Amino acid sequence: MAAIKLYDFASSPNCQRVKVVLAEKKLPFETVPVDLRQGDQKKADFLKLNPYGKVPVIVDGTTVLYESCIINEYLEEKYPEPALMPKDRAKRAKVRILIDYGLAHLDSAYQKLRQEATKKEPEKNPEALESAKNEVKGLLQRFEREIGDQQYLAGEFTLADADLIPRFLRLEGFGVLPDSSLPRLSAYVQRIKERPSVKAIL
Ligand SMILES: N[C@@H](CCC(=O)N[C@@H](CS)C(=O)NCC(=O)O)C(=O)O
Questions:
Q1: Which residues, including other chains, have CB under 8 Å from residue 75's CB and lie 6 or more apart?
Q2: For ligand 1, is residue 13 a contact (CB within 6 Å)?
Q3: Each residue of 169-182: pLDDT tens digit?
């Protein structure tokens, strides 16, 4: 079986979530670097693979796919062992709700925070940054409740953990996590960082 090709930019969170799943499933893959700073993702050859002009893209035999969460669903279906989705249909739906919450529902607050956190000095605005952090922390309470006394977001390690860990790592970088108002989520992020699949993207 030819190795899966991953068109990758090392620090891209969207690529990282695919790398976590490839590693969890121990699937051999080769990375094809795409230099986003040079605009490689907008070149004609790359646009043939992904008309959106973004990474990640995977090529698995004759299958070419983009959109990181969709790639991960494909990998789960095609390479079902070890399973990263629950057997129960309703629980699988719940995993997808968590992913949607963390990536889509939380996104506008996350983007606001990212904008504030990455401003350079004289534009920096400490009040606006604090307020953006607090808004995200409020939304993260959902995960605090979901984790409860479980190890991972949906009990066992699932696609929810793989898909959301790059975002939680960014939130650490922005100083939102760890936080005393989010003790379970903070401990969870430390715990998940011990998994070899996550260590590999740190
Ligand atoms: N929804 C897409 C987003 C992909 C995405 O935004 N990739 C970024 C890197 S993290 C990218 O390629 N940006 C380059 C650009 O937009 O030109 C996914 O989940 O794969």
A1: 18, 21, 22, 25, 27
A2: yes
A3: 999 999 999 999 99
